[in-house]
Design goal:
disordered N terminus, 11 strands, about 150 residues, Rieske Iron-sulfur Protein, five-stranded mixed beta sheet, single chain
């Protein structure tokens, strides 16, 4: 019951304060729970959603691609994840890896896999409704392994 109340609270906050949804510095992390992303908070400005699982910090990127589709990925580079700098920041209409400098168009998020790309959240890993995208805690727990050294210097 606590988990359901928390999820509803997060969705309501996102609807009431959508400007905060695009700034992870102002968002409280989702801790040891499913992440529920309200689709109406996602835009062409990448949303970096902070999450904490078993004490490990990670982030999910949610963004609207130029074709209008919503794309999601973990905010870590598939190659640079263990460097401590293998995460992305938005620069205009691209994401830039803070370790290797590779740049990725929003249209490549969740499409490109392998090499230096954000780790995609494939459709079969998340549950999507008309209004939300839910990333299950079990997937977050598995993914936490690639975030063990993430942003350690920041």
């Amino acid at each position: 019951m606590k988990k359901l109340v928390f999820v509803i609270f997060v969705i309501l906050l996102a609807m009431v304060f959508p400007a905060c949804a695009n700034n992870s510095a102002k968002m409280l992390p989702v801790v040891d729970a499913d992440v529920v992303i309200a689709k109406n908070t996602i835009s062409e400005k990448a949303q970096f959603i902070p999450v904490e699982v078993d004490g490990i910090k990670l982030e999910i990127i949610a963004v609207t691609a130029p074709d209008g589709t919503i794309r999601t990925a973990f905010n870590t580079c598939q190659v640079c994840y263990d460097s401590g700098k293998g995460f992305y920041k938005q620069d205009g209409d691209v994401l830039v890896c803070q370790n290797c400098g590779n740049r990725f168009k929003m249209s490549d998020v969740e499409v490109e896999s392998g090499g230096c790309n954000p780790v995609p959240l494939w459709d079969e890993w998340a549950t999507e409704t008309d209004d939300t995208i839910t990333v299950p805690l079990s997937l977050l727990q598995e993914a936490s392994a690639i975030f063990g050294n993430w942003k350690v210097e920041y």
